[in-house]
From TrEMBL:
<keyword id="KW-0804">Transcription</keyword>
<dbReference type="InterPro" id="IPR019885">
    <property type="entry name" value="Tscrpt_reg_HTH_AsnC-type_CS"/>
</dbReference>
<feature type="domain" description="HTH asnC-type">
    <location>
        <begin position="1"/>
        <end position="62"/>
    </location>
</feature>
<keyword id="KW-0238">DNA-binding</keyword>
<keyword id="KW-0805">Transcription regulation</keyword>
<dbReference type="InterPro" id="IPR000485">
    <property type="entry name" value="AsnC-type_HTH_dom"/>
</dbReference>
<dbReference type="InterPro" id="IPR036388">
    <property type="entry name" value="WH-like_DNA-bd_sf"/>
</dbReference>
<dbReference type="InterPro" id="IPR019888">
    <property type="entry name" value="Tscrpt_reg_AsnC-like"/>
</dbReference>
<dbReference type="InterPro" id="IPR011008">
    <property type="entry name" value="Dimeric_a/b-barrel"/>
</dbReference>
<dbReference type="GO" id="GO:0043200">
    <property type="term" value="P:response to amino acid"/>
</dbReference>
<dbReference type="GO" id="GO:0043565">
    <property type="term" value="F:sequence-specific DNA binding"/>
</dbReference>
<dbReference type="InterPro" id="IPR036390">
    <property type="entry name" value="WH_DNA-bd_sf"/>
</dbReference>
<dbReference type="GO" id="GO:0005829">
    <property type="term" value="C:cytosol"/>
</dbReference>
<dbReference type="InterPro" id="IPR019887">
    <property type="entry name" value="Tscrpt_reg_AsnC/Lrp_C"/>
</dbReference>
<dbReference type="Pfam" id="PF01037">
    <property type="entry name" value="AsnC_trans_reg"/>
</dbReference>
<dbReference type="Pfam" id="PF13412">
    <property type="entry name" value="HTH_24"/>
</dbReference>
<dbReference type="InterPro" id="IPR011991">
    <property type="entry name" value="ArsR-like_HTH"/>
</dbReference>
Length: 156
């Protein structure tokens, strides 16, 4: 990936609403050149989308927790993500190495809501859980500094 494309990706990661005019000013390119490059980055899948960052406390979901899950029956099919997809309180599901199979990031309104969600997770996926409650988040959603080679080609 060219240096200018890495700069565009870094700028968009910091501010996904940055205008083509601002991107052009920051990169020294014309607006049309920036537009073409952004569209190409989107088409290649380097830029996969744009999202709003929500204040979860403001929308009534102040409690964040990480829930590690492990199948009760190790011989059971590895289908926990599919079995848990309907639980919208699960913000992210990460397959991990180690004792657990997955780590879920969840957001809920209260400790009671977390307790209810844990019961739903156990029942839906036939798993045991280990939960870590977040006390505070000094930073999150940090934009990467893109400085290495990014994948290219049709599958990138």
């Amino acid at each position: 990936m060219e240096e200018i494309d890495r700069r565009i990706v870094t700028l968009l990661a910091r501010d996904g609403r940055m205008s083509f005019t601002d991107l052009a000013r920051e990169t020294g390119l014309s607006v049309s050149a920036v537009h073409q490059r952004v569209r190409r980055l989107e088409k290649r899948g380097v830029v996969r989308g744009y999202a709003a960052i929500i204040d979860h406390e403001a929308v009534g979901l102040p409690l964040t927790a990480f829930v590690s899950i492990k199948p009760i029956d190790p011989a059971a099919p590895d289908d926990a993500p599919e079995r848990l997809a309907h639980l919208t309180a699960i913000e992210a599901c990460h397959s991990v190495a180690g004792d657990e199979s997955y780590i879920l990031k969840v957001r809920v309104a209260s400790p009671t809501a977390l307790e209810d969600l844990l019961q739903q997770i156990r029942a839906s996926a036939n798993v045991s859980t280990r939960t870590t409650v977040v006390l505070s988040t000094p930073y999150e959603h940090r934009a990467p500094e893109v400085d290495g080679e990014l994948p290219s080609g049709p599958d990138a």
